[in-house]
Amino acid sequence: MNTENKDNKENKVCAILLAAGSSTRMGRDMDGVPINKMLVDICGRNPIEHCVSRFSKHVDEIVIVVSESTADAARHAAEMTSVHVSIVMGGARRQDSVLAGIRATRCETVAIHDCARCMVSDETIGLAIKSAKEFGSGVAAVKMRDTVRNSTTFETVPRDELVLMQTPQCFEREGLLKAYETAGEVTDDAAIWQSLYGHLRLTPGSMENQKLTESNDIDFFRKVCGNDMKIRVGIGEDTHRLTEGRELILGGVHIPFRLGLLGHSDADVLVHAIIDALFGAAAMGDIGRHFSDKDIQYKGISSMILLERTVSMLKAKGFSVSNIDAVITAQEPKLAPHIEAMRKNIADVIKDIGIDDISIKATTPEHLGPEGNLESITARAVALVNGF
């Protein structure tokens, strides 16, 4: 196997993300149901989604190795990236799953990673891949910091030469495939590589790159994840003309009035402003880009359906809604009696947040402007979302 410098642009990299484990050490939830760590919510994403997002910035292809219980989650995660994703079934042992992943790709370099290490940093990934391209192997590891004792004799074990092995573990593919096909029982990819080639190159890991193993670990992962999240703000504004012969619908509430709002959909100006604010926070354009008023499928559609689709689109990009503040400008009718129903409707659709995270206010323009003259109603909204 060639371990010479491989600094060439044709050296494509594939991430093999392992999500087929049994999660036996995670225990059970309050209802006695076994916890699958691959499906645990960590800042609005499960570990598979976190890993797909993180590795998408570094690789040309992704293979997710799954079990029956994680296949659907992997398919959903695949929709979050523009990188080509393949999904393959894992085996009884970790090394069987890795081998299935290696055989599913033809990239020159493979980066094998346990999805349980879902807080892996860009630096850790990049250094391991770079080493594998240049020297054939690159394995993330951290030096032992704590005092280590033998649990039987209680003797102190010298720690100067000890390291904790992490993932990603990256290798030249053909060499690793050969090693796997001749290997016995081992615990990680580095051991398989070393069994055939001897030399192994370590790269810096990090203390945040821990492995989600027990249910008590979840709080740690959420805290680490929270430090990585960005707060993003979007604003939205919409105006619709008042006319006879139309229903007045605001926040999904049908409000008795002699005039209604004119539009291609149900013309729910409040929900439209909220949708624009959400898209704006995620830098995803506006409502017209996604739900064109030239498209017949949206004619007469409930804006609550459009809001539900908007939230799903944001989730697919890794965003979660934090709170919404909106104001409706209308001379008539009196909207105060309907505000609570609007808040509830919107909270029921968004689901990430409760009614206390949604503020809706109504103001009159004192008979000024088109709203004051009963020509239109305007709504403005501000949305706060969390993302990466």
What does this structure look like?
The relative contact order is 0.12. By secondary structure, the protein is α/β, with parallel strands linked by helices. 30% of the residues lie in helices and 26% in strands.
Task: Return Rg in Å.
Answer: 27 Å
Structural class: alpha/beta
Poorly predicted runs are 1-9
For the termini, the CA-CA separation is 39 Å
The biggest sheet, with number of strands, parallel, antiparallel or mixed sense and barrel status, is:
7 strands, mixed
What's the quaternary structure here?
A: single chain
Number of strands: 16
Percentage of residues in DSSP E strands? 25-35%
Instruction: Please report the number of helical segments.
Output: 12
Q: How are the strands of the largest sheet arranged?
A: 3-2-1-4-8-5-9
Helix content: 25-40%
Q: Would you tell me the overall average pLDDT?
A: 91
Order of helices and strands: EHEHEHEHEEEEHHEHEEEEHHHEHEHE
Shape: elongated
Question: In a nutshell, what does this entry contain?
Answer:
The protein has helices spanning 47-55, 71-78, 94-103, 122-135, 173-181, 189-197, 218-228, 269-281, 287-290, 303-316, 339-350, 369-372, and strands at 13-19, 61-66, 84-89, 109-114, 137-143, 148-149, 156-157, 163-172, 202-204, 230-243, 248-250, 253-255, 260-261, 320-329, 358-363, 376-387. It has 388 residues and is an alpha/beta fold. Helix 3 packs across helix 5 (173-181), helix 8 (269-281) runs parallel beside helix 10 and helix 10 (303-316) packs parallel to helix 11 (339-350).
Features:
single chain; 388 residues; alpha/beta; seven-stranded mixed β-sheet; five-stranded mixed β-sheet; 12 helices; 16 strands; disordered N terminus
